[in-house]
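Recall from the previous chapter that SMILES is a line notation for molecules. Here it describes magnesium ion.
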Amino acid sequence: MVSHKMRALLSILGILIGVAAVIAMIALGRGAQQSIEQQLSSLGSNLLLVMPGSARVHGVSQQAGSYTRFTFQDSAALAKLTNYISDVTPGVSGRAQLVYGNKNWNTSLESGNASYASIRSAFPIAGRFFTEEEVKTRSKVVLVGATVVKELFGDINPVGQTIKINLINFKVIGVLPTRGASSWHDQDDVVVVPVTTAMYRLLGKQYIDSIFVQVRSPDLLDAAQTAVENTIIKEHHLSAKEADDSFQVRNMADMKAALESSTKTMSVLLGAIAAISLFVGGIGIMNIMLVSVTERTREIGLRKAIGANNKDIMTQFLIESVLMSFIGGLFGILVGSGISMLITVFAGWSVSISWFSLVLATTFSLVVGLVFGLWPARQASKLNPIEALRYE
Amino acid sequence: MIEIKNLYKTYHIGTIAVEALKDVSLKISCGEFVAIMGPSGSGKSTLMHVLGLLDRPDSGTYTIGGKEVQNLSDQQLAFLRNRLVGFVFQQFHLLPRMSALENVELPLIYAGKIRLKNAAQKRLEEVNLSDRIYHRPNEMSGGQQQRVAVARSLVNDPLILFADEPTGNLDSKNKAEILSLLQELNRKGKTLVMVTHEPEVAAYARRVITMRDGVIVSDKMNKPDPAGIVVPDADSCVESIMDKSKRDPGGIKFLDYIGRRFSPWSLIR
Ligand SMILES: Nc1ncnc2c1ncn2[C@@H]1O[C@H](COP(=O)(O)OP(=O)(O)OP(=O)(O)O)[C@@H](O)[C@H]1O
Ligand SMILES: [Mg+2]
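With both inputs in hand, we obtain:
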């Protein structure tokens, strides 16, 4: 009996691991998806991004002349489309070397006008944002992200301090809100300065890298996109062919969809791994049930001799296998949830356990018990009572 | 009450055919106590299994109470095994992981009558085991185990009791106990068919049938029927029992099963 007990526990363990894997994998996949959604929502959902070059810029060599250079004239023209558009911020970006006291830090530099705060959801948590006046006068003011604060200032309040950006003195006027770390990119490792300051004082750029356009409402996105494209074609007197590949207007919803589809692929992959382990667990259950049928042949014979019919025997064995995998499933849910939480705590990845995955895992474990118990149960029920009783 | 006609049963082992029953015909009436004797391999057990509905003959007819049973479905046969006949084996065949009481309750479960809780307990009292009801089989003597088996065979109040060498594994003291128990049951009206090797065991029966090589070679009365024996009119009740099988309470049976037999721990116990 001891060996039977041990085998039952091991089979339960098989299901347990399978279910735990399903829970943890789905939690991981969902977590990744949510963190991407969070990052995208920090960009704002009604945004259009206007950039030079075609969507195929990466990987395809650019032809001379097929590259529109944006100026403040363009952003001003877009801002006039007030039917569709509430705000516009032109921007350039690059790297910047920061110095404060004896501390050095290399970070990414972003820029915009006074509307940057509302368009990019970047209202400072301390201090203030820069004004339109400061943009016009190319003021040397800067807002810093949480990572920069941590690296350069430590416990000191950064607002009001002076730091050097690429050797020029800047006054820190605010701290940016945290956007959260994504797995591949720290979004808080950033400084934001007025776009004019960035172009003429820091990066030496003559043209704008990109224009963020805030559309009034989500249902105007398509109309706004067309209006923006037409405006730029008109401003730059572009031919139809040039219009196609010398600039692009990106819709945040499209980018979101692309990212989501890639996380979905990841989720499916993780889910498949989990399903395989559950399947293996099911084979374990089937194995022990077959052993149990052989081991208990005489019991089956006896039960039949005193009045059990084939259905009764079948039911008994099915209940046993379903119960076993159900117990495995329950403990699997506990272990899987535990693993998910450990991943959150130790690896810092956000994971999220869903009701869906709990229900799925429970149902799955029941189904596994049923399906893999069916064959052994049928074997048991087909035994002839006398032969079964004689079995040694 | 029981009538078999021209029963044949042949076993095939590879190319060798063993004729265990050859053209066996037999009639047993209500209230009889029959012993079947014969040398080893003469087909006694085979006959008992056919009579006890545990095995099907190759050919021939078998009627219980005027009803032919050789062509019944598995479900119907199981039902008759449960209600109509009781079987006692030489090897007891108790389930080792269950107490005496639980073993005796088993036929009640398949009858959907587990609610009659004290039925099992009463049977155990009848076989003088009221102080052993929570003992496991391995905590009991052979005689006690066989008495549990007798209680189990009686719990659904069958018409006929079959016992295949019920004393074969017992010492003389336990043997006498079991035999007087069986004799007492017969005196109360139970029809009894018993297989044995030993003449002194067969002496308890009132009719002795002798078999050799698959045929009945002799069939004689041991002693006249004692006075005061109860002979029930059983022929009519078979039909009514069969009728009940059509109203098989399958759902209740299932719930009983889960409720009584299934704690999760029973899996790893
Ligand atoms: N399952 C089986 N497969 C093959 N042959 C069998 C089987 N069961 C019984 N036999 C054969 O049928 C014949 C009758 O067997 P049976 O068990 O009825 O004898 P028995 O009279 O009960 O003997 P014993 O007194 O030893 O119990 C024997 O020759 C036996 O070898
Ligand atoms: Mg025998």
